[in-house]
Input
Amino acid sequence: MLKFVIIGVALFIVYKLFMGDKKKREMNQAKETKRKVATGEMVKDPICGTYVKKDGDIRVREGDKVHVFCSYECRDKYLKQLEAVTIEKEDD
Output
C-alpha cells in the first residue's frame, strides 16, 4: 500500500514539474512576441489578427502600404474585401 502512495506522489510531482515548465515556456513565448511587436519585427495580420514576421512571404501591396498575412486564406479574404471596396467606389 505504501508503494502505491509513494508512486502516486512521485507521479504527481513529475506532472506538476512538467506543467510548470509548459506554463513557463508559454509565458516566455508571449513575452518574446510582445517584444517583437514593440520593436516592429512582427506585424498584425489585417484579417485574423495573428502576429506574423514583418518580412513574411505572403504579402499584398496596396499603394504605399504592404500588408503581411499569416496564410493564403487570409490574403484571399483581404483581396476579396479590397475588390468589393473598389467595385463599390466605381459604382458611386
Summary: Residues 7 and 16 are 14 Å apart (CA to CA). The radius of gyration is 23 Å. Residues 2-39 form the longest helix (38 residues). The chain has two helices and four strands.
